Amino acid sequence: MLEASQKRARFITFEGGEGVGKSTQVKRLLAKLESRSISAVRTREPGGTPHAEAIRSFILQGRSESWGAGAEAILFAAARLDHVNELVGPSLAAGKWVISDRFHDSTRAYQGLTGGVDDNLIGALETLALDGHAPDMTIVLDMDPEIAFQRVEQRAVEDGLVLTGDRFEKEDLDWHKRLRDGFLEIAHANPDRCIIISADQTADALEAEIWHAVHERFPELHDEHGT
């Protein structure tokens, strides 16, 4: 029988560059957990709550770009603080697993390692916004950004959509390569929490690899069926 400490709700985050398939895999993992009668909620950053979604819209429309990466980091932290207080914390306290499309590592990668914001400021904002709610596991989906954007463009053509790009999607390829390096640096610096998985595979294959990693990480998933 599992100890009570092993039965607590888990907090899993997905990270990575633009177009690597995080949103799809968040949905699939949520469905996988729910099929095993595990109560879970899906959320995203910035966003997840009305106030955080308003900040998300403001930033991704490019309205904060002229303020600089430091100001954007503060805005993301404000959104995160509300997200943690209103959704992440209460959900975990209620015994629900939380699966988030991005969390604090994105601020460290985008505004910190890529945008040049001082690490002391990034660290202080993390301490404030997380309020002790660090993820139990972070899945970093890794892909060459050039391939990722080719996939995004191909999907848009297939769906008859016109790509406009948000605040960060509009950055040049070199910027996105540095962003990828930033996420890998974070993952290598936090091996107990982060796992790097190649996103350059089919969605089904990626789903299977993610589930294997999650299943291996958390003993409460090792039920009598072993699946």
TrEMBL record:
Record PROSITE patterns: THYMIDYLATE_KINASE (PS01331)
Residue span(s) of domain Thymidylate kinase-like: 14-210
The enzyme's E.C. designation: 2.7.4.9
Protein name: Thymidylate kinase
Positions of ATP binding: 16-23
Function description: Phosphorylation of dTMP to form dTDP in both de novo and salvage pathways of dTTP synthesis.
Organism: Devosia algicola
Entry's Gene Ontology molecular function annotations: dTMP kinase activity
Gene3D superfamilies, sorted: P-loop containing nucleotide triphosphate hydrolases (3.40.50.300)
Coiled-coil residue windows: none
